[in-house]
Specification:
Layout: H1 2-15, H2 19-26, H3 30-37, H4 46-56, H5 61-74, H6 91-100, E1 103-108, H7 119-129, H8 135-148, E2 160-166, H9 168-171, H10 177-190, E3 196-201, E4 215-219, E5 228-233, E6 236-240, H11 243-259, H12 263-276
Parallel strand pairs: 1-2, 2-3
Antiparallel strand pairs: 1-4, 4-5, 5-6
Pfam family, one: HTH_31
Protein name: Helix-turn-helix transcriptional regulator
Organism: Actinomadura livida
C-alpha cells in the first residue's frame, strides 16, 4: 500500500491535480485519497485504479499493470492475519512493515527485541505486560512472536537485524534465573549469524541519546520506499515517515552505535553475564 500510494501521488502531482479534485472524481472524501497516498487506507479497487490512470492521462501499459498488481497484492491478507484478533490495534501495520523490511535497526533500554527472544523469555514478558490476559491469548501472542522470527532466516530478499541494548536489559531479571541464562545463550548464538549484529551499551558510558526510550528503524528492499521509524508507547504506536522525522532518529541510532561496545566486546560482555548467572 505504501508503494502503491507513493506511485499514485507522483502521478497525481505530475498531472497537476489536487487531492480535492481526485476526491471529486472518485466521489469520496479528500481524507480517503490522502490515506490511499500514504498507504494507510484500504486498498483501492481495480476500477478506482483504472479511473485514476485515465484521469491522470497515464497510458503506459507497464505502469498500469504494475499499479493494478500492487493493488491486488495489497488486498491480500498478510500471513499474520490469523492473529489479528489478539494483537493490539495498529500492531498489524508494524508486522506488515517488518515482514517487508530488508533491515531493522533497534535500540532498547528495557527488553530484548522480540525477534531475538526465547520462548521462555517472551512468555514472561507477555504475562507481565498483559496482566489478567487469558492464557489462550498469551499462547497465541507467543506463537505470533515466534513466527515473526522466521524472517531472520529469509534469504530473498535478505534481512539484516542490528540491535543496540542498554546494559539495563541484562541487569533486570525477567523470570527465573534459567530464563535469563537461556536468553543470554540465545544472543550468543544469534550474533554468530552474518545478518545479526548486537551491541551492548554499558552503564559506564553514562548518559546517552537513547535515554528517552526504545525505537526501531525499518528499511526496505526498494530504495524508493522511505524508511519508517516505529515508536511504541503506552499512549499508542507511532509511525514516522517524513524525512525530517526519520533523519534525527538515524543520527540517534548512529550515536548509540558509536557509544556501544563493538560486536567482539559485546560477545565478551555476554559471556561475562552468562558466567555471573551460573
Amino acid at each position: 500500500m505504501r508503494r502503491l500510494g507513493s506511485e499514485l501521488r507522483k502521478l497525481r502531482e505530475n498531472a497537476g491535480y489536487t487531492i480535492e479534485q481526485v476526491a471529486d472524481h472518485l466521489e469520496c472524501s479528500p481524507s480517503r485519497v490522502s490515506r490511499i497516498e500514504t498507504g494507510k487506507a484500504q486498498p483501492p479497487k481495480q476500477r478506482e485504479i483504472r479511473d485514476l490512470l485515465e484521469l491522470f492521462g497515464t497510458t503506459d501499459a507497464r505502469i498500469r499493470d504494475t499499479l493494478l498488481q500492487l493493488a491486488k497484492e495489497a488486498a491480500q491478507p498478510g500471513w499474520y492475519s490469523e492473529f489479528q484478533d489478539v494483537f493490539p490495534p495498529r500492531f498489524g501495520s508494524y508486522i506488515g512493515l517488518e515482514s517487508e523490511a530488508a533491515e531493522l535497526r533497534h535500540f532498547d533500554n528495557q527488553l530484548i527485541h522480540g525477534l531475538l527472544q526465547t520462548p521462555e523469555y517472551a512468555r514472561e514478558v507477555l504475562q507481565t505486560t498483559l496482566p489478567g490476559e487469558a492464557p489462550e491469548t498469551i499462547d497465541r501472542l507467543l506463537e505470533l512472536r515466534l513466527a515473526r522470527q522466521q524472517i531472520l532466516n529469509r534469504a530473498t530478499p535478505a534481512f539484516a537485524l542490528w540491535v543496540v541494548l542498554d546494559e539495563n536489559v541484562f541487569r533486570r531479571p525477567i523470570g527465573e534465573a534459567t530464563v535469563m541464562r537461556g536468553q543470554v545463550s540465545r544472543l550468543l548464538a544469534a550474533i554468530k549469524a552474518p545478518n545479526i549484529t548486537v551491541q551492548v551499551l554499558p552503564f559506564d558510558k553514562g548518559a546517552h541519546v537513547g535515554l528517552d526510550g526504545p525505537f526501531s528503524l525499518l528499511g526496505f528492499p526498494d530504495p524508493t520506499d522511505p524508511d519508517v521509524v516505529y515508536v511504541e508507547s503506552q499512549a499508542g504506536n507511532a509511525y514516522l515517515e517524513q524525512p525530517h522525522q526519520v533523519s534525527p532518529m538515524n543520527t540517534k541510532f548512529n550515536l548509540l552505535v558509536a557509544s556501544a561496545l563493538d560486536p567482539r566486546e559485546t560477545a565478551a560482555f555476554l559471556h561475562r553475564i552468562e558466567e555471573e548467572m551460573q
